[in-house]
Design a protein that fits this description.
The chain is 61% helix and 18% strand. The two termini are 17 Å apart. It is of the alpha+beta class and 361 residues long. Helix 3 runs antiparallel to helix 5 and helix 3 crosses helix 10. A seven-stranded antiparallel sheet has the order 1-2-3-4-5-6-7. It contains eleven helices and seven strands. A hairpin with a 5-residue loop joins strand 4 and strand 5. The relative contact order is 0.11.
């Protein structure tokens, strides 16, 4: 049995890797087409553009993984069905559920690698890719370091501990230097909001260094004109869906403590668990199709059907997520609903195939 497990698992893993290479390759191609118009702006050369696009590849791989495992399983098991290998296994007493277990075991091994990429590698690579693009396309601004957002605006050095959106920052510190590169003013603000072409700092403490002394003042709000624009923040801000679950959890705690809206980030947090679960559901669904309606069709039809199922699941999941935010549905329920429905559909397929064959699965 272990030999059959390894054989079935190897077929599924190989098919999934081939599907990932094709899907990620297409994603890179379209990203290059989308970015090619920006080449030549500032120091944004072709090589820099390719580097920034390649740095977004881990996130694409993670997002495309459920579709890849579905296509890989359909293609791999479909080839086995065409060669009558699955029929031989069934004739030797191997049940459908035993084959499903072998497929899911291979899927779990791949899933561990995919989750590591999505939770550890992808957020770091995404951040570096966005910063690389920002440095190359924007003049007078530098993005430095990894502790929050660091920006140089002429003789000002700005650190935002948290970027809550294109028009809202938190834990902001602005260091102003004079012509001799001596620190003249340090301004700290709990929050900053962009409106009317300028920033408004709230709950401000300003330290002015004069000679050997320091003058400290407090203000409820201060207007702050800056080169730092919402458009520029949009380049370097990591979208919630591209953040790791740990980072989102920390941000949700911060927002709760400050009485700020957390709904978008809560949905993003629970959405991080969508990829692992949906990948297993896609593998679960693939097996009865190979034994049933897709047993004797060609590879092109299997790919088409797999794409149809994958995109249907994606669209339905996005629709439920948007409706859930509009109508106040709990994020966990919004995530589990499409998974549960497709899982139920898979169980119906197994039952239908067993009834058609007149055997126990």
């Amino acid at each position: 049995m272990k030999l059959l497990d390894r054989y079935i698992g190897g077929v599924v893993v190989t098919g999934t890797l081939v599907a990932l290479v094709v899907l990620v390759g297409l994603d890179i191609f379209f990203n290059v087409i989308d970015e090619i118009d920006n080449v030549g702006k500032g120091s944004y050369t072709l090589s820099v553009m390719l580097q920034s696009v390649l740095l977004t590849t881990p996130q694409s791989l993670y997002e495309l993984f459920p579709l890849a495992v579905l296509l890989g399983s359909l293609m791999g098991l479909g080839t086995m069905a065409n060669h009558a290998e699955l029929v031989a296994m069934r004739a030797c007493g191997l049940s459908v559920w035993r084959i499903v277990r072998s497929v899911l075991q291979a899927g779990l091994l791949m899933l561990v690698v995919a989750v590591f990429i999505g939770e550890v590698i992808a957020p770091i690579a995404e951040r570096h890719g966005q910063n690389l693009r920002a440095q190359a396309t924007e003049r007078g601004v530098s993005f430095l370091g990894s502790r929050g957002l660091w920006v140089r605006d002429d003789n000002h050095y700005i650190n935002a501990g948290k970027v809550l959106g294109r028009q809202r920052l938190a834990d902001l510190t602005v260091y102003e230097f004079d012509a001799e590169r001596q620190l003249r003013v340090a301004t700290r603000a709990a929050q900053a909001e962009f409106s009317g072409g300028q920033w408004t700092l709230k709950n401000v403490q300003q330290s002015v260094f004069v000679g050997q002394g320091v003058s400290i003042t407090h203000e409820d709000s201060v207007v702050w004109p800056s080169l730092l624009t919402p458009e520029l923040l949009g380049i370097v801000q990591l979208k919630p869906k591209n953040m790791s679950a740990a980072d989102i959890g920390q941000l949700v705690d911060y927002l709760d403590e400050n009485g700020l809206d957390t709904e978008e980030y809560r949905y993003a947090f629970w959405g991080r668990f969508m990829t692992p679960l949906s990948s297993l559901v896609m593998l679960f669904i693939s097996v009865p199709f190979v034994f049933g309606s897709l047993r004797s069709v060609g590879a092109g039809q299997r790919i088409f059907f797999g794409m149809l199922i994958g995109f249907s699941f994606y669209i339905f999941s996005q629709l439920i997520s948007q409706l859930g935010q509009v109508y106040g549905m709990h994020p966990l329920l919004a995530m589990l609903l499409p998974i549960s429905l497709f899982m139920f559909y898979g169980c119906l397929l197994y039952t239908s195939d067993a009834a058609d064959e007149g055997v126990e699965v």
